[in-house]
What we know:
By secondary structure, the chain is an alpha/beta fold. The chain is built from 9 helices and 10 strands. Strands 1, 4, 5, 6, 7, 8, 9 and 10 form an 8-stranded parallel beta sheet that branches. The longest helix is centred in the C-terminal third of the chain and has 19 residues, at 166-184.
Amino acid sequence: MITRRQFIAGGIGSAAALLSLSLVPEYKVIDQLINSIPVLLYHRVGTETDNLTISTKRFEQDMESLSQSGYNTLSLAQVKQRLQGQNSKLPDKPIIITFDDGYLDNYKNAFPVLQKYSMKASFYIITGMMGNNDRLTASQIREMEAAGMDFGSHTVTHRQLAELTPQEVTNELNQSKIDLEQLLGKPVDFIAYPCGSYRPETIQATSNAGYIGGFSTQSGFAIFNNHFTIRRIPVFHYDRSIAYVMLRKGLLASMLG
Length: 257
């Protein structure tokens, strides 16, 4: 089993070869990325053929590959400790798995696979759609949370925050947080911005609402230099193996900024 440093160094070498970059300052990139964490972004797991949906078989292949490669999924509590600078030791080869939109298939198809491989994931819920057709219900969310899954906000209506008025942004951030905290009986510290849409004012409003971290849709490894624009690695229906996705959309995207 290769170490995290070996994986990053090897990936940098592969990326440099693909780009014909013979003078990549590998040691600087390694120093920057060695403490980064890949954050996978999924949406749906099922039989649909749209870009946001991957098959249950493919999702299980992803989780099996990660498990066999020695990756350990982090809880949001561990991410919170990391952001707050606490000296808690993370497991070797940490990874964060996220799901946006709160689709029902997350419970029916993804949740059993995650349990099979003893993996955690965080699910970002559109609270105004909770319980609607094809969306997670309150009881399913509680069941998943009791089994070790985490939940965060994806706002109330899933409107793009960069296009809303300041008052609308405040309402979306605050009300979704309140709704989830009442459902789960504990603080909700993280949000995933709908469609990755935000402005500098959005980030300030997110902090003012009491969140400690925000997930974007910008590709790359999470370096955590800004707690409210955390990068993720999106996984789509047409993507190749999870190892290739992590190299191309994670490591390479981080190298290129």
